[in-house]
Amino acid sequence: MTISNPLPDDVLIARILAGEKQLFGLLIRKYNQRLYRIGMSVLENEAEAEDAMQTAYINAYEHLPRFEGRAAFGTWLTRIMLNQCYDQKRKNRHTLTNFEQPDNFVVMGTPANELANKELGNVLEEAIAQLPEKYRLVFVMREIEDMSVRETSATLDIEETNVKVRLTRAKAMLRQSLNSYMKDRVYGFHLTRCDSMVSRVFNHLGIQL
Q1: Cβ distance 26 to 40 under 8 Å?
Q2: What residues contact 202, with CB distance under 8 A and at least 6 apart?
Q3: Is 180 exposed, middle or buried (0-12, 13-18, 19+ CB in 10 A)?
Q4: Under DSSP, is residue 137 helix (H, G, I), strand (E, B) or coil?
Q5: Which residues of 30-53 are buried (b: 16+ CB within 10 A; e: fewer)?
Q6: What is the pLDDT of residues 91-122, one digit of tens each?
Q7: Which residues have CB under 8 Å from 200's CB, separation 6+?
Q8: H-run or E-run covering 154
Q9: Residue-wise pLDDT tens digits, 122-157
Q10: Are the C-beta atoms of residues 27 and 73 closer than 8 Å to each other?
Q11: Ranges of H-type helices in the chain
């Protein structure tokens, strides 16, 4: 769940580094939705995405004194998340090559995807999941997370022209009738899960809520 943060990121970071560790929870809550959507775009698994988020937040907190502000904190954090997702994906691929899958192996839907009121969200998520990863990532960053062309370019380390081209191709692969529903329906990270993520990260870091 994304929240409206009353303080700019740089102010929060300065206060966290000065000893107000609990304020890191505001950054977690602010970026949970973005990181979850990025995680789902790469890993396509809720549990894996949340594990990647937890690790990304821990890594960001532990390296916060080294954050120099040359890029926006959100961009820096998203890069950490992407690196973690790709690392997990490589490990998962290696694991799968060492264990034979049964012939009837099926990736089952999660309980969240089976709720009665999420039919439309499921359709949207499925449509996005069918996009090749490089297009899916750009689509999620630009259209769902409202990241700028510059920020998307910096995060993915590609030219801004490539961002625009990939977004155009991604849109062409999706039905136009779905576009108006994307922002509020896809990969939602709701309040209870947001609270849980803060607790998981703080417990690991030994920060009292």
Answers
A1: no
A2: 24, 25, 208, 209
A3: exposed
A4: helix
A5: bbbbbbbbbbbbbbbbbebbbbbb
A6: 887 655 554 443 433 343 445 444 434 666 77
A7: 54
A8: helix 149-156
A9: 777 888 888 999 999 999 999 999 999 999 999 999
A10: yes
A11: 9-17, 24-43, 46-62, 73-98, 119-129, 133-139, 149-156, 160-173, 182-185, 191-205
Instruction: Name the one residue in this structure whose structure tokens are 């995807």.
Output: 113
CATH of 9-205, one of 1.10.20.10, 3.30.450.20, 2.102.10.10, 1.10.1740.10: 1.10.1740.10
User: Which class for 95: exposed (0-12), middle (13-18), buried (19 or more C-beta within 10 A)?
Assistant: exposed
Calpha distance 177→115 (Å, rounded): 23
Tokens of 159: 């030219």
pTM here is 0.74
**Helix, strand or coil for residue 44?**
coil
Contact 82, 41 (CB under 8 A): no
Q: Which amino acid is at 204?
A: H
* Helix axis angle, 46-62 to 191-205, nearest 10°: 50
Tokens of 182: 């994307």
